[in-house]
Design brief:
- This protein is mainly beta.
- It has two helices and 17 strands.
- The strands form five sheets. The protein has a five-stranded mixed beta sheet. A four-stranded antiparallel beta sheet has the order 12-11-14-15, with helices on one face. Strands 1-3-6 form a three-stranded antiparallel beta sheet.
- The longest helix is centred in the first third of the chain and has 7 residues.
Length: 270
């Protein structure tokens, strides 16, 4: 309800958006038969140094385990540099610029394996962004029970099962816990895996020819908190029985005919 005694003029300075650089994806998998485009978003950064390192196959578990830890910046002994170049962005102040990185062009016609992609201003290492990606045509589905591990391998390009893929289960210490090969249905079934202590399964890898697919078990586990998972587990030892009569009600003095079905592990007869 009041009025100004005189006109008031003030100058307000709005600062530029803080320079930033990041990959517009949180996943790590790229289909080898897909476009292999990795989107890199920049704000107020004109140029960035791009470096791509290929992870040696026997070091993939190390990178999965340590990539987001403090050792993520010291992976040089686990990789080899395959690409270095400068990426430039359009000069549009305070506006996000997205540049799709064509990995097929940067890495060759048919790249396969795990790669660490990093990008950032040359003299500002604290602004560098890093992403671990896996280029493969092998899709893995892993199912666990108390002592079993079932691995199903399919080709991402055709959705068909992959027969004869070498499958390995690794611990967090990169020690092989089990090895096998997929059957005609693309399935490898590992039984009696001790999942305690340092023998806890950490990652599963499948290799076919020059292609390798890897899945880390815990981060990719299906969240079943919203699902009804009640009931007992599958029978692991001993027997179970189902007893029933020939009808639901009897008169006093009637003969009762009972039947029983007894089954052991994997529905085997006693």
């Amino acid at each position: 309800g009041s009025t100004l005694a005189k006109e008031v003029v003030r100058s307000i300075v709005i600062p530029d958006v803080e320079p930033s650089l990041h990959f517009k994806t949180s996943g790590i998998y790229l289909s080898a038969q897909g476009s292999l485009l990795l989107p890199l978003e920049s704000i107020n950064i004109r140029a960035a140094e791009l470096q791509i390192e290929q992870v040696y196959p026997n070091n993939v578990v190390h990178c999965l385990r340590d990539f987001n830890a403090y050792r993520a910046h010291a992976t040089g002994d686990l990789t080899r540099t395959v690409c270095k170049e400068t990426v430039t962005f359009a000069q549009k102040p305070n506006e996000a610029q997205v540049k799709p990185l064509d990995l097929r062009k940067l890495l060759g016609k048919d790249p396969r394996g795990a790669f660490i992609v990093s990008a950032g201003p040359k003299d500002e290492p604290w602004r560098h962004e890093r992403r671990l990606i896996l280029v493969t045509d092998l899709g893995l589905t892993v199912k666990r029970s108390a002592a079993d591990l079932l691995v199903w391998v399919n080709a991402l390009s055709t959705a068909q099962p992959v027969e004869g893929a070498a499958v390995s289960v690794y611990s967090r210490a990169n020690q092989p816990l089990a090895t096998g090969a997929t059957d005609a249905n693309g399935i490898a079934h590992f039984k009696d895996i001790a999942a305690t202590g340092d023998k806890q399964p950490f990652a599963v890898a499948a290799t076919k020819d020059a292609d390798t697919g890897v899945v880390e078990i815990e981060p990719t586990r299906l969240d079943d908190s919203d699902l009804d998972t009640g009931g007992r587990p599958y029978l692991a030892q001993g027997y179970e029985a189902f007893l029933y009569g020939d009808r639901g009600i009897y008169r006093p003095g009637s003969k009762v005919a009972l039947r029983a079905i007894v089954r052991g592990k994997e529905m085997s007869g006693p």
